[in-house]
Design a protein that fits this description.
The complex is a heterodimer of chains A (173) and B (184). Chain A is α/β, with parallel strands linked by helices. Chain A contains 7 helices and 6 strands. The model of chain A has no long low-confidence stretch (mean pLDDT 93). Chain B is 42% helix and 15% strand. Chain B has a 6-stranded parallel β-sheet with strand order 2-1-3-4-6-5, with helices on both faces. Classes of the chains: A alpha/beta (173), B alpha/beta (184). Chains A and B meet through helix 2, helix 4 and helix 7 of A and helix 3 and helix 5 of B.
Chain lengths: 173, 184
């Protein structure tokens, strides 16, 4: 995950397999997750990324539509703003669910079983999450969200150390 | 702050070789070095290599839409224990700058790059105007502190091993720069 989610996720989880990394390439959390999912097919790879970040690399959707493996779950935080830098509005007509479908993720990915969904309430997300974690994908899920809490301060951590911690957690280092 | 990477000058003798490395020998070298995945968007100089890798059952070819994606996917593959090679034209390298910073140089991911030096042949032949992609390639690699070696023909193929070893030893990106199109 990158940007806003990297500020909030450590408040709820400090697992060794977490990789909340603010300074990562802008818009590329999903691409990194795609590579990780391809490398480790025995594990579920979950990507948390923002809709503003997706706009920085829209072509990534097409790449996922072609290569995403069944163990990749992308959760797109759709808040329609660049929240971290002042909540400036995103282009209002952009339809992220439609974009993902048009990019070939629906019925695509490496498995040909890709699914694109949109979930609009926390109650529905709680119901669907167990399925999303177990069902073969890839899954691209648009989560309509809004944030009413102040963001935690930005923490720039040891980037090289963070990625090695993840590799150790995966047993490859 | 990370230590400055040593810049190793390119080998001038490479420019005297037969123009362009052969696809089959390059592919053999890539497989010998244990690369599991090749990420590349085909261009005029690398299209034959792209085809050969796509036809090879022992190596995974991934063709993203833009090179920044390639860099981030490669970083994910490496994090998961695989060994990716990025084949990337200099123009794509320029596009991928932020990904290279955030997914390679910052977190010390030893990305292995084979950079196509578009414009090199024309510049060597004195053709005008000079391709700006040619002009900015070396300064960019120097600015990022990425060590590189030139690969102009088959006799330069050992530079792949040197690049690979350097990336492993420094845990930072390293590159070979190919001046001519791959030949069949």
């Amino acid at each position: 995950m990158t940007m806003t989610t990297t500020l909030q996720w450590p408040l709820v989880s400090q697992h060794e397999l977490d990789f909340d990394f603010l300074a990562f390439g802008m818009g590329h959390a999903g691409d990194f997750g795609l590579g990780l999912a391809l490398a480790r097919p025995e594990r579920k790879t979950i990507v948390l990324k923002g809709d503003g970040g997706l706009l920085m690399s829209l072509g990534s959707l097409v790449t996922m539509g072609r290569y995403a493996p069944g163990n990749l779950l992308v959760l797109l935080m759709e808040n329609r703003v660049y929240e971290m830098v002042g909540a400036q509005a995103l282009p209002p007509r952009a339809d992220f669910t439609a974009l993902a479908r048009a990019a070939g993720i629906e019925g695509g990915g490496a498995t040909g079983k890709g699914k694109v969904e949109r979930i609009t309430t926390i109650e529905a997300f709680k119901i669907e999450l167990p399925r999303l974690l177990t069902e073969e994908g890839p899954h691209f899920v648009v989560l309509a969200i809004s944030n009413k809490e102040p963001l935690p301060p930005v923490r720039h951590t040891d980037h090289a150390g963070r990625i090695r911690k993840l590799r150790k957690g995966l047993g490859v280092e | 702050m990370r230590q400055k990477t040593e810049i190793i000058p390119p080998q001038k003798e490479g420019a005297l070789s037969v123009r362009g490395a052969s696809v089959s020998k390059t592919l053999t070298a890539i497989k010998t070095l244990g690369f599991t995945h090749v990420l590349m968007i085909p261009d005029s100089e690398s299209r034959l290599l792209h085809q050969a890798i796509g036809d090879d059952p022992d190596i995974h070819l991934i063709t993203p839409c833009r090179e920044g994606e390639s860099v981030a996917i490669a970083a994910g593959l490496w994090t998961g224990g695989r060994k990716p090679l990025l084949v990337i034209q200099n123009t794509g390298l320029m596009e991928a700058g932020d990904a290279l910073r955030g997914c390679g140089l910052g977190p010390k991911v030893p990305l292995r790059l084979m950079v196509g030096w578009r414009g090199y042949g024309g510049a060597q032949a004195g053709r005008m105007p000079i391709d700006s992609a040619y002009t900015y390639t070396e300064p960019l690699l120097h600015a990022w502190g990425i060590p590189y070696w030139t690969m102009m023909g088959d006799e330069d193929l050992p530079m792949l091993e040197r690049m690979d070893r350097t990336a492993a030893e420094t845990s930072l990106p390293a590159a070979v720069v190919t001046g001519y199109a791959f030949r069949s």
